[in-house]
């Protein structure tokens, strides 16, 4: 009976794989095979707006009027009411699916990086320094997304395999029981007699009766990496399928756009290529609440990214309350008294400071390996308030290391700072002028000598067209008093 139970899981796995290969594999491969757009020639069979309409609802662009006619018609029988309800539900489901995949394409990678940092701070060990460094590099260099995912997958796979091998009886016999990684530092320095002496545990390997919980977070990272790869593959497959269907060349949008994300690559008469976008611009955002929400989803960080970074820094300062909080306060003070152009020049140095400080802080939490029997210079210091002062300076200690969970706030600070660096690159790059034209300029008009005589912006104080103008009027007229009262 015991043998049968142990063989049940691998036997079931084998049977499922055989069924998959014999009955479903060929059809599945045809379904997910990447289409090719190399042989596309001739005129397109639809505009970019038609492609977006089709992608959201999976209905032919020529039938868009038929869709609106169904939605606006009054049902006369219960069958028509049921069909209309089904039509609305199915249409909503397809739209939610469409935007969910696009959202995953944009932000699943950031979730993977956050999961790497969360795993590192919840389980402090030397191996996780690798994850912290990879997460830091991944935040700064988004174009290395595939490489970072691959290196993370290799690192977590090796750690999971090492942790499982460490539980084997042969490892217990030749490594654990022989104290292979244990060193008695009291023979070198009597002050180190009570320090941790197991280097394997410092690295992240230890015996545990619940291995699934011990490596659970690393398995979760592997699953997240898998879904990130699936999302990217699915979106690329979708773009190529639409390219073949509409006889166009769709490419990945280099801008972080959620609504109307497709980019059309058009060949010009002089054999050059020009990208065509269908993003809602800042002038269309005033038409109504729905258009404004679409514009906000596309450009909220472009418009208010600097303010979001400042707010995040204030939150980090309130959480940390140590030497790093003082350094963050200095940076924040410099930014607040500087113009946007000056902040743009200094931002790269701010990023360099963050990407150096973030891994060093985690290394301070991990500390030196016990195998070295290293004695910190401040170990023998003992006076009133020294434990609090050591914690304030974020100094490593064998018995009371710095709090690792504080680094979660630092991760979000670095994340938003890196996103703001991309915004500054958009503003200073000529090839990204389309993004600036659509989102609107962030140039500070307070320093202009000329005052707008003919303001192109709608006067929502005097003439209110819809609820969006009412909301803007309330914020404009009463927002200051709300801030003062808080």
UniProtKB/TrEMBL annotation:
GO terms for cellular component: membrane. The chain crosses the membrane at residues 111-141, 148-169, 214-231, 300-319, 325-343, 350-378. Pfam families: Piezo_TM1-24 (PF24871). It comes from the Eukaryota. Keywords: Membrane, Transmembrane, Transmembrane helix. Signal peptide: none annotated. This is Piezo TM1-24 domain-containing protein. It comes from Adineta steineri.
């Amino acid at each position: 009976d015991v043998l049968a139970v142990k063989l049940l899981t691998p036997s079931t796995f084998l049977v499922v794989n055989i069924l998959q290969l014999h009955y479903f594999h060929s059809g599945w491969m045809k379904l997910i095979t990447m289409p090719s757009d190399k042989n596309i020639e001739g005129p397109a069979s639809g505009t970019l707006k038609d492609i977006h309409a089709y992608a959201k609802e999976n209905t032919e662009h020529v039938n868009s009027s038929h869709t609106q006619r169904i939605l606006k018609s009054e049902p006369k029988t219960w069958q028509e009411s049921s069909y209309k309800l089904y039509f609305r539900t199915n249409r909503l489901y397809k739209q939610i699916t469409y935007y969910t995949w696009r959202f995953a394409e944009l932000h699943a990678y950031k979730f993977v990086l956050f999961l790497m940092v969360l795993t590192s701070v919840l389980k402090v060990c030397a191996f996780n320094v690798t994850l912290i460094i990879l997460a830091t590099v991944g935040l700064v260099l988004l174009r290395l997304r595939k490489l970072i995912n691959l290196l993370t997958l290799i690192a977590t796979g090796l750690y999971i395999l090492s942790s499982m091998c460490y539980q084997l009886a042969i490892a217990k016999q030749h490594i654990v029981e022989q104290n292979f990684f244990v060193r008695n530092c009291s023979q070198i320095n009597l002050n180190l007699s009570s320090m941790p002496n197991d280097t394997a545990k410092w690295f992240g390997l230890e015996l545990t009766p619940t291995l699934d919980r011990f490596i659970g977070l690393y398995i979760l990272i592997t699953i997240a990496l898998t879904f990130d790869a699936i999302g990217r593959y699915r979106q690329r497959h979708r773009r190529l399928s639409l390219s073949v269907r509409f006889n166009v060349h769709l490419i990945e949008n280099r801008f972080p756009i959620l609504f109307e994300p497709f980019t059309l690559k058009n060949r010009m008469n002089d054999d050059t290529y020009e990208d065509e976008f269908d993003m809602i611009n800042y002038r269309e955002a005033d038409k109504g609440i729905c258009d404004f929400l679409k514009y906000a989803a596309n450009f909220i960080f472009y418009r208010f990214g600097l303010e979001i970074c400042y707010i995040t820094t204030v939150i980090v300062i309130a959480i940390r309350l140590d030497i790093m909080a003082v350094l963050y306060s200095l940076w924040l003070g410099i930014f607040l008294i500087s113009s946007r152009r000056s902040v743009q020049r200094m931002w790269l140095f701010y990023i360099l400071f963050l990407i150096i400080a973030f891994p060093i802080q985690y290394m301070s939490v991990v500390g030196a390996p016990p195998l070295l029997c290293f004695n910190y210079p401040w170990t023998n210091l003992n006076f009133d308030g020294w434990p609090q002062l050591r914690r304030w300076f974020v100094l490593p200690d064998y018995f009371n290391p710095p709090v690792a969970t504080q680094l979660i706030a630092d991760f979000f600070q670095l994340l938003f700072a890196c996103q703001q660096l991309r915004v500054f690159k958009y503003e200073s790059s000529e090839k990204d002028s389309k993004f600036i034209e659509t989102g609107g300029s962030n140039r500070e008009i307070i320093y202009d000598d000329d005052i707008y005589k003919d303001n192109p912006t709608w006067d929502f104080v005097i003439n209110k067209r819809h609820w969006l103008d009412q909301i803007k009027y309330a914020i404009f007229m009463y927002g200051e008093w709300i801030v003062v009262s808080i």
